[in-house]
Design a protein that fits this description.
The chain is of the alpha/beta class and 375 residues long. It has 11 helices and 17 strands. A hairpin with a 4-residue loop joins strand 2 and strand 3.
């Protein structure tokens, strides 16, 4: 049997990692400024994380949601305190797409509506309704194109107001910092007006914090820079530092009903152990503050360097886009193969930086030197 060939792969096999660095099977060290799609939040192979996962696996890796799992309750309590949403409820699943599916489903259960508003350039996942809410026709199969979603320009409130006032919108789903869309930031003015419109018209506001959340922006959630409180918040990526896990934070206006939502693997013992270890490390090592400080420094230094081909540097915390006046492909390839540094990308011209939240000033300087050598 062969692998289903849907990934264009670099001819590199990564076999170990530590902090913000990884090594391939030939012993070559790489600076990791991508963290596997923003998944590595507290650094590769953090000893506390490894120890917590090992201890839990030696006790119990998995049992079903038909019995009490004290780790789930502990995670809910810890997460609520750390992120400032102690009055919300938590539903645990496995992936970002699953979190968004359940958010959209819960919104529809709540108000009985079926129409979704999503932003142009949005990415919300690859399954069913999540992919329909993703503004990329290339990945929406005919079976997913069911007419539920209207795409509107980010930050243009009049377009959103016109649709919401029709009275049939179930939910608005927004990434407050678009990841795949090229590190585009929602404005506070737009989000506050959108929140007020949703409240007025009984429309659910969903903030997709899968990539921009969990401390990456310099606040626990990116929307916390904008002065709003969404009805539903989706998290994944860095929640368990690479172990598959996601969550849905649910406002008190939603009342749980037995059987309404469900999952086989979501919130399993091993995932919860990983997520609790991540919160330990984020708090003990002040990683949210570090993301803000080092991210601000990195953006300032990138702008001050006046590098050729760089036309814009934008972002918040350790979620940064470097827009080029040339396609990113050659730049990214040379960064990987000549400078041994991983980055992400967006569109055709933007490099996307999503390093672990433990990135140091020295590593930020190191990256700039490597990028300078390529450009």
């Amino acid at each position: 049997m062969q692998l289903f060939d849907v990934y264009p792969l670099f001819d590199i096999a990564i076999e170990k990692g530590l902090g913000c660095k990884v090594w391939d099977n030939k012993g070559q060290e790489y600076l990791d400024f991508y963290g596997g799609h923003a998944v590595i939040s507290v650094g590769h192979c953090h000893p506390h994380y490894v120890d917590a996962m090992t201890k839990q696996l030696n006790k119990l890796g998995f049992y079903s949601n038909s019995v009490i799992n004290p780790l789930q309750q502990k995670l809910a309590e810890r997460l609520g305190k750390v992120c400032g949403y102690e009055d919300y409820q938590l539903f645990l699943i496995n992936s970002g797409a699953e979190a968004n599916e359940n958010a959209l489903k819960l919104a529809s259960f709540y108000n009985g509506r079926t129409r979704i508003l999503s932003a142009e350039k949005a990415f919300h996942g690859r399954t069913s309704l999540a992919v329909e809410a993703t503004a990329n026709p290339k990945i929406i199969a005919p079976i997913n194109a069911n007419g539920h979603v209207t795409y509107l320009p980010l930050n243009e409130i009049e377009a959103w107001k016109k649709e919401i006032e029709k009275g049939d919108v179930c939910a608005c789903i927004i990434e407050c910092i678009q990841g795949v869309g090229g590190i585009r930031l929602a404005t506070a003015e737009f989000m506050q007006e959108l929140s007020a419109l949703c409240e007025k018209h009984n429309t659910i506001l969903i903030c997709d914090e899968i990539q921009c959340g969990y401390g990456r922006s310099g606040r626990f959630f990116a929307h916390q820079h904008l002065g709003i409180k969404p009805d539903l918040i989706t998290v994944a990526k860095g929640i368990a530092n690479g172990f598959p896990m996601s969550g849905l934070l649910i406002s008190p206006k939603f009342k749980p009903v037995y059987g309404q939502l469900g999952t086989t693997f979501g919130g399993n013992h091993l995932a919860c152990a990983g997520a609790l270890a991540v919160l330990d490390i984020i708090e003990n090592e002040n990683l949210i503050e570090n993301a803000e400080k080092v991210g601000e420094y990195l953006m300032e230094q990138l702008k001050a360097a006046n590098l050729p081909h760089v036309v814009d540097v934008r972002g918040r915390g350790l979620m940064i886009g470097i827009e080029l006046d040339t396609p990113y492909k050659e730049v990214r390839n040379r960064l990987i193969h000549e400078q041994h540094c991983f980055t992400g990308c967006s569109g055709t011209n933007t490099l996307r930086l999503l390093p672990p939240l433990c990135l140091t000033m020295a590593e930020a300087d190191d990256f700039i030197a490597r990028l300078k050598a390529v450009l």
